[in-house]
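Hey, weird one. I pasted the Glycosyltransferase family 2 protein sequence into the form twice and got a warning about non-standard characters only the second time. First submission, copied straight from the form history:
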Amino acid sequence: MTSIAKFDLHDSSPVASLEEGKSSLEIRDGDGELSDVGIVAIGRNEGQRLVDCLVSLKSRVSRIVYVDSGSKDGSVERARDLGAIAVALDDSLPFTAARGRNKGLETLIEQWPDLKFVQFIDGDCQLQEGWLERARSFLVANSTAVAAYGNRREKFPERTLYNALVDRDWKGRPGEIYGCGGDVMMRISALRDVGGYRDWLIAGEESEMCVRLREKGWRIWRLDGEMSRHDVDMHSFKQWWRRSVRGGHAFAQVSYLHRKSACAIWKKDVVRIVFWACCLPLTALATMDPSLLILYPLQIIRQAWREGLFRRESWRNALFDSLIKFAEMQGVFKFYANLLAGRLQTIIEYK
């Protein structure tokens, strides 16, 4: 691991309505050591999850901006009632998480121009106690670090098979990483320097921006311990499939954008997807040789072996790791079909 300032990565210690382009709010002073930290939350029809999110924030930091993407459930009013600045995005342009975060950051800077750090969080997440202090301390202690990322966990992994699968996706080792997810604390000056997120990306916008940040010499770190709790609330195979299609689209689009970059982000992932979900089955069909398909059960056994052959979860994970390639291939195909047609993909929703 590359050396950093003395900081234990494993230490786990712990308003008003605003229409786009307008501002009016009541400013509260001081949040102790977090006085240079602001928060941007984004969401769409999150209901009680948004309430839980904002409640987890407001006792720690008063500078909170919530950006709404066309909710019909009263989310803007709920955010206003909880003291956040509520920004309603103009619905004449496509909604994306990237666009929401950019607008939230812009609003935050307009109201508090002296802020140094921003914590982004999705509206279906709850920030964990002590995370803001840990993340800020890490960034202050390490001048080359642009982002402090932590572990996101599912709030109810036991409720459905799909919740458990998503919970597994969030796991990662602490240390320097190439990209991050949506819940992350970042340096505002660095974000402004690279122009923020790309508004038109429907997914993968965080890791795409991290490529541009790393090209300017910045580094991204994952700290140990919980950062946030997520409520994916997934109950069907169809939802899981659509979420995976969106992931495949992100792999293809972001790897294409940075195809000439030294880091070649997600290039190997796209190659892996195309091999397992396109090349292998088409080759078996073209050659009329079904014996090639034995590679699928062999791959499932291999992956189950890694996690423990006598654990039921190992076989479940291995099976879905194979299935997901076909959903991701659909996303890869969508991206390249749109590229050839000269159009952008609209957001792929799974809730």
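That's the output from the first submission. The warning seems to come from a hidden character in my clipboard, not from the data itself. The mean pLDDT is 91.
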